[in-house]
Amino acid sequence: MTNNIKPSISGYSKYNPEAKCRRKINPLEELYPTLPCKKYDVIYADPPWDYGGKMQYDKSNIKSINIGFEKNIFISAADFKYPTLKLKELKKLEVQAISADDCILFMWTTGPQFANSIELGQAWGFDYKTVAFVWDKQIHNPGRYTLSQTEFVLAFKKGRFPTPRGARNIRQLVSVHRGEHSEKPEIVIDGITKMFPTQKKIELFARQNYAGWDNWGLEIPEQKIEILSKSGLN
């Protein structure tokens, strides 16, 4: 007896094939590019956190609204934009080799990755100290608990606080409208530069090439850009 029952169509069955095609793969044979042979007083990192393939979508994924899924389903995921890494892989990055005896680490994170961030900072040889910046993105994503509209920069310290210290009036709360996916507001690295104007500084997992900073990552432009001071930062 022939089974004529057709498999039900779901949002997942529609977007899963596309997701597989759009997922970014690390082009290197090794897990990471080579780190510089230098020691830095300030390290600024935006780790490519892995969310287990979790995707963002809108109401186009709801069968009762997008009947028959006739309209294209909106999907977005971190690994569509860049190769993501699991915590155990991030721990393998030898940040200890480039951090001075007295060093500050500023690390970007999100609510779901908060605990992992503290664990990662410790694995890199640092002690967690505080939340240095809170970014109000002025736009929200659906959240399981509350609407998600903020990201955080955590501060870690190794040894003593690097001196001499620059500005002491940099604000914790940064309110800047969200731009492209994973694009971080320049006001944050500007603030860090003002706090530590003379120290040796590097940005890890960089996607820009800021004057006064060394950088490391897969997607770094050749041309240096000046960090513009923003009104309202201090």
UniProtKB/TrEMBL annotation:
Alphabetical keyword list: Methyltransferase, S-adenosyl-L-methionine, Transferase
UniProt GO MF annotations: methyltransferase activity; nucleic acid binding
Signal peptide limits: none
GO biological process, one term: methylation
PROSITE patterns named among the record's database cross-references: MT_A70, N6_MTASE
Gene3D superfamilies, per database record: Vaccinia Virus protein VP39 (3.40.50.150)
Entry's family note: Belongs to the MT-A70-like family.
Protein name as annotated: Modification methylase
Organism, as annotated: Akkermansia muciniphila
